[in-house]
Amino acid sequence: MLRKIGLGGFLLVLACTPCFGQQWAKRMFKTTEHDFGAVAHGSKAEYKFVFENIYLEDVHIANAYTNCSCTSVRVENPLVKTYEQGAIVSRFNTDSFRGSRGATITVIIDRPFPAEVQLHVHGYIRGDVSVEPGSVELGAIDQGDAVDWKLSVKHVGRGDWRILEVKSSNPHISARAVETGRYYGNVSYALKIHVDAEAPAGYLNDHLLLVTNDPRGGQIPVLVEGRVLPGVTVSPATLFMGVVQPGEKATKQLVVQGKSPFRILEISCDDDSFQFHTSADQSAKRLHLVPVTFQAGAEAGKVLQVIRIKTDQGERATELTAYAIVAAAE
Question: Are 103 and 120 in contact (CB under 8 A)?
Fold first, then answer.
């Protein structure tokens, strides 16, 4: 019976059951609570509550709001299809608030069925330590280029306050603190950040930890954001072939683009269910269109594979994830 009525009927049963009516929505979230820890005044403190649609039905986030103005919230990708991801982005308003703060974020879902999920954030906003600007915003970086950045760190209240060390969560990002002033209880540092030329392509979303001699809170996070751009990019970055009936085919298109004209040498995948149709014109171009066809097998479920595109722009292949849902046979 369950196979015949499909997932919609299954969710309807859950939605009508008091104990489980909201659980289907909560199951999509990897976590529902986050501790920002101790953060500096003026710093950018953000956390993404990532959720993944594990159902065949589309999920739509109608709204998300917070019960405290110390926290702002926004929704990334409110309409999420099967196995796609979205995020509820929470941000501590460190410019306007001080001290211990917390908030409850209520997420309103209206499709496929009404539901609410509550998320929780808390932390401590320091008034004696500030950073300017609030984070390291590197923007777009060409792969192979090294980048340097600088921001200032200030402390008020203790003349013996020191930054002892700067730790990085990313091996390609390093930083050092250089003292620039110390007078009447005010201490200032220049934080010099370096991203090396070996940083791989992809998004940078990491933290530097300022290790201090303050016994009340010895580590202060500084957010580092940016994106290292490869010579060749592929869109979409994740290819969803759709929900396909057993034995049927689905075709989607990849856009492969470079900063300069290039040739595609090879496209490969470990699963023969994915086939690629390259153009007969093999001349160097800045943009190539590559149709991808998925042939569904008899077994129902999710098919997930990595597609590798080799070009004449270097030895490293450009990779992307492709997946499809094979529907259960009636």
Answer: yes
Domain with 244, as residue range(s), is 232-326
| Eight-state DSSP code of residue 298 | S
Cβ within 8 Å of residue 229, ≥6 positions away? 140, 141, 142, 143, 201
State whether residue 329 is helix, strand or coil.
coil
How do residues 287-314 score in pLDDT, each as one tens digit? 999 999 999 988 888 898 999 999 887 7
Question: What CATH number is attached to the domain comprising 140?
Answer: 2.60.40.10
Which residue, 99, 126, 153, sits at the end of a domain?
A: 126
- Joined tokens for residue 279: 């153009």
d(CA 71, CA 92) in angstroms, rounded, equals 5
pLDDT digits (tens, 9 = 90+) for 212-235: 998 876 789 999 999 998 888 898
Q: From CA 233, how far away is CA 255, in angstroms rounded?
A: 8
What region, left, alpha or beta, does residue 314 occupy, with left being phi > 0 and alpha being psi -120 to 50 degrees? Answer: left
Whole-model pTM: value is 0.77
